[in-house]
Write a structure and sequence with these properties.
The chain is an alpha+beta fold. It is built from 5 helices and 5 strands, in the order E-H-H-H-E-E-E-H-E-H.
Length: 152
């Protein structure tokens, strides 16, 4: 198994991610009966054009097996620092043993640091945590987020 890690653009990612995105949604999403998977690809393209979106992927012999997508921007509280906040992160279950996930995050960290990012934040789902990986990569638990469905 020779996994390759790279930074990609939305156009290629959109074409290749459909199966993995569906698996991700089925495994992670809350309120599935009320909120359907329906990415706004035009928003992703727009963010990419502005330089505020980065996509990092893991591929096995060309097949997409993982992705890590972040939004980049300045925080109004800290105008001297560029922040990257993850949008989605997912690794196909067949590739979770071993270091593929760790290597994907490390690759993204390296690229983001080269781009001048000061802080990378990764959120995880309480019902599907990967805290062990976050601690191994020396991330700190800094915040808890609560959510409530308000729709009908």
């Amino acid at each position: 198994m020779a996994i390759n890690f790279q930074q990609e653009f939305v156009q290629q990612f959109e074409k290749d991610c459909q199966e993995l995105l569906r698996l991700h949604w089925e495994e992670i999403a809350l309120n599935k009966g009320k909120i359907k998977l329906n990415p706004d690809w035009s928003s992703y393209y727009s963010c990419e054009e502005k330089g505020s979106l980065k996509i990092f992927t893991a591929r096995d012999s060309g097949k997409l097996v993982g992705y890590f997508v972040v939004f980049i921007g300045y925080n109004p509280h800290y105008k001297d620092h560029l922040f990257a906040t993850n949008d989605v992160i997912y690794l196909h279950s067949d590739f979770r043993k071993g270091l593929t996930g760790v290597k994907l995050i490390r690759f993204a960290e390296k690229c983001l640091k080269e781009d001048g990012v000061s802080v990378l934040s990764i959120n995880t789902k309480v019902h599907q945590p990967f805290d062990i990986i976050m601690k191994r990569l020396k991330f700190n638990l800094i915040e808890r987020v609560y959510s409530k469905y308000l729709g009908e």
